[in-house]
Amino acid sequence: MALNFHSSALLFNLTPTTKFKHYSSSLSVRCSAPSSSDEDATNKKKKRLSQQSSWETEDSEGNDYLYRLGAEADNMNIAVGAKAGVIDSLFAGNFLGKDSDIVFDYRQKVTRSFAYLQGDYYVAPAFLDKVVCHIVKNYISHLLNAKVPLILGVWGGKGQGKTFQTELVFQAMGIEPVIMSAGELESERAGEPGKLIRERYRTASQVVQNQGKMSCLMINDIDAGLGRYGNTQVTVNNQIVVGTLMNLCDNPTRVSVGQQWREGDITHRIPIIVTGNDFSTMYAPLIRDGRMEKFYWQPTKEDIVNIVCRMYEKDGITRDEVATIVNTFPNQALDFYGAMRSRTYDQSILKWVEESGGAEDIGRRFLRQRKKGELPVFVPPEQTVEALLESGRSLTEEQKLIMENKLSKEYMKNMDE
């Protein structure tokens, strides 16, 4: 007998009388020794009573309700959202103007918006062209008589703004992406990261279908999770993640999350963007040209000056002064100039702490103001070229100490004896 999924609502409408009858019948005891015919009758009755529960009823193929529940997971209220009244009110809420359950609310928040990016930022033209071209090519791939790689791999030196520049492009294009990190590519359960990638890919597809917005899947620092360095161990999850990404490249519109295939289960083609520092450590068939388009990002001196100029613009630092700072510290990554500006705040913060009662009282003051809804007042320091240069010299000195001392060798020198 084929099960009707909507009959599951009956499980939540059992009356106390029904439960009591079921309970009392299971407690009936015969004092006399049962005969074989009585045992057969009792077993048939128990079987008949057990089959009153839809959890144990089998369909024509011999599969019980739990099997069907897992196989048709996308038809459950966790995928489409059930109205309040159908499920317990504890799990219901109002989201996007509609009654929906809390799981549907959570699934929609997997995507990332960039409302926090307020201000004027500079995006390098070469970077903008490459990311925009990759996204558009994937969305119109059915119109092109060409093989379009699904993945764009943005790689280069550390701290060159690969992730931030990509997010700026997303904001400019109105894209609502799904973003993952390398830390999600490993799990204590085998197969979990591969399944997570497929679920996130399908979530991005749902953004296109349900919200009418462009979306993509972005994985940051992918070589940190999939790269092979020296004697690092390759786990089952590493292999499954690589296989999952390769399969997505080959079949971008047929993505399983573990249940049975259904004829109408077609997803939108979603472009994937990954960032990393060294793609040579990754599995070669994954990064081949048919699957991944590689883009080496090394900002030019002009790009660095333009980006840093926007960074220091509110501080009153002119473009010529920015050029002087960049020339003073050549061969530094973009994040160096952000850290340099951040370090200029140190003396002002220490002075502010001392004026607020010292380090002993600062914790209690923070808690009191937070409880009252008041934020501490802090006046940022006035930025000068001299202060920035001094901060930059202290940062380079720290870099030099790390490279020269190599304290790890000092700690381990007795291990070889």
Distance between the termini: 75 Å
Total beta-strand segments: 7
Output the structural class.
Answer: alpha/beta
Radius of gyration: 30 Å
CATH topology grouping of the largest domain: Rossmann fold
In CATH, the homologous superfamily of the largest domain goes by the name P-loop containing nucleotide triphosphate hydrolases
The total number of structural domains is: 4
Query: Percent of residues in beta strands?
Result: 5-15%
Poorly predicted parts: 1-32, 73-84, 95-108
pLDDT average, as an integer?
77
| Helicity range | 40-55%
| Quaternary structure state of the chains depicted | single chain
Description:
With 417 residues, this protein is of the alpha/beta class. It has 4 domains: 1-71, no CATH class; 73-109, no CATH class; 125-296, P-loop containing nucleotide triphosphate hydrolases (Rossmann fold), CATH 3.40.50; 315-416, Helicase, Ruva Protein, domain 3 (Orthogonal Bundle). The protein has helices at residues 16-26, 36-50, 65-71, 77-80, 102-108, 125-139, 162-173, 192-211, 222-226, 236-250, 301-311, 319-328, 334-343, 346-355, 359-371, 385-405, 407-412, and strands spanning 92-95, 98-101, 151-155, 178-181, 217-220, 272-276, 292-296. The chain has a 5-stranded parallel β-sheet with strand order 4-5-6-3-7. A hairpin with a 2-residue loop joins strand 1 and strand 2 (98-101).
Kindly list the characteristics that best describe this protein.
417 residues; alpha/beta; Rossmann fold; 4 domains; 5-stranded parallel beta sheet; two-stranded antiparallel ribbon; 17 helices; disordered N terminus
